[in-house]
Amino acid sequence: MCGIVGYTGARVAEPVLIEGLQKLEYRGYDSAGVCTVEASGAMHLRRAMGKLAALRARLATEPCPGSTGIGHTRWATHGKPSEHNAHPHRYEGVTVVHNGIIENHRALRAELQAEGHTFSSETDTEIFAHLVARERRGGASLHESVRGAVRRVHGAYALAVLDERCPGEIAFARLASPLVVGLGDGENFLASDVPAVLEHTRRFVFLEDGDTGTITAAGLTLTDVDGRPLSREATQILWSAVMAEKGGHKHFMHKEIAEQPRAVTDTLRGRLGLGDGDVTLDGVDLDVLARAKRIVITACGTSWHAGLVGRYLVEQLARVPCEVELASELRYRDPVLSDDTLVLAISQSGETADTLAALKEAKRRGTMVMSICNVIDAAIPRACAPDGSGKAAGTLYTRAGPEIGVASTKAFVTQLVALHLLALQLASVRKTMTKQALAGDLQALAELPMAIEGLLDGEDAVKAAAARYVAARDMLFLGRGLLFPIALEGALKLKEISYIHAEGYAAGEMKHGPIALIDEHMPVLVLALPGPGYEKVISNMEETRARGGRILAVVDTDDHALDDQVEALFRVPARHPRTAPVLATIPLQLFAYHVACLRGLDVDQPRNLAKSVTVE
Ligand code: G6P
Predict the structure, then answer these.
(1) Strand 551-556 vs strand 322-326: parallel, antiparallel, or unpaired?
(2) Which of 164-168, 169-173, 187-191, 271-275 has the lowest mean pLDDT?
């Protein structure tokens, strides 16, 4: 998800860029870089691996003079974190910073290599420097060249481009990745997000998809990709600096819940073959997958819940036996792990000590390994990187971007999407699904971002419901099948940020214990979506009602059967059973969030918890 900043004006650009990047570090922090250009055309490029502090240290001895420049803080998507993969990327006097994903970068790279271009990184971004430089050779202006370049790419981009032959000018383009222009007095700014330059200006132009243009000290030029002039109103931003960092949200958790349509879109990008009814999993060795006769998923916390959904998907779609085990249990259990077993580790951070240890133990016993992870090249993906042994299948990355709120939200939802893609890939390799069924799942996945957007629009109703349960001491969450893990996750979200004791239970198990707890002090949230378990879940609900229990239910948008039977209803468009878990998650996240807020708690940093647990 990367952060971009650009400055042109009368000041020295470097400190403006570095301060801007500091405010954008929440968007990524595996490497950083700046490039400035002096009025003479002298260009200065500095990059460093790791957090911004490393770049600062470099600049302390090798400063970048010049009053026009671009900067970048990276969250790797293509090419591991390293100095040579850090942005800006340079080719023939053109330098580029980019946030987004270029889907056809391999084909473009091959085309350019055939023309004699040599590349110095493994990134998709470097393509832009080459494409722009090629256009420049033909005499096109910088802005025309950027338009020419973006016409060739498929994917998402926010782009800022410098050229030593036109100092004082920064060209930019945006599609599906955020980019704003900050308007100053005799100076102008570019940034991924408002907070980067809020201390310099409060007037912003929020760029839209397909916008391209240039900034100079004197002003802003804006056109569409074909060069037709555009005009956009500037907005006066009234946020405080702290609010701006959270994108205007009160908490990172809320911001991250709101980012889920984008996070899902990014996780699906380039992987859904809607036309040819297939999936393409980049970074995963299909030969290894094809040899797996059994899959053991291992993870901790929320990632373990995602794994539980994954088991249903893998078994249902690909007919591969699949187990899920807590990493902290698996490693000490002396498990039976044969060499045709694939151990799949799921982790947001890629650093969780128990998950890493379980994975290493599995490797030691000769299993095949793979991971689903959000942080590129973290310890877990490194342990799964293909190493010539034919046993490491690589990593399927979720593309949620950095998650700061301790309670995982967007990482979980993108893990569910990644697991669904993986199950479809396995099904396709094993021919266990018809083309038509496969196409149905792909379509349901493609519709998810919009459906999540719709659920986020219904937040006020969830907040109103949350107000009724603020004083609860205990709460039970029930679900069956694919929705059982969602009941576990809903309960975990509530307990970790609101400190209300909450338990998730398989609805069918209710009568084997929890039913003894039911009274008017124990609200019960029932996940009652269409599917084979629906009638049974309704019976469980009746049993609860008969004992005076207060019921909240998550139901399908078109289901009105429970309208008069429950205290609160959350409606989700659960038309497809295998994407329903994602949709059912959204109101549960919002519910936990609002209950915790109404109780006045520290939502982003709940007591005693850590974002990444690197001790066993
Ligand atoms: C901690 C976090 C959870 C997370 C779990 C596993 O407990 O607070 O949100 O689910 O670790 O982390 P991982 O990074 O491996 O997914």
Answers:
(1) unpaired
(2) 271-275
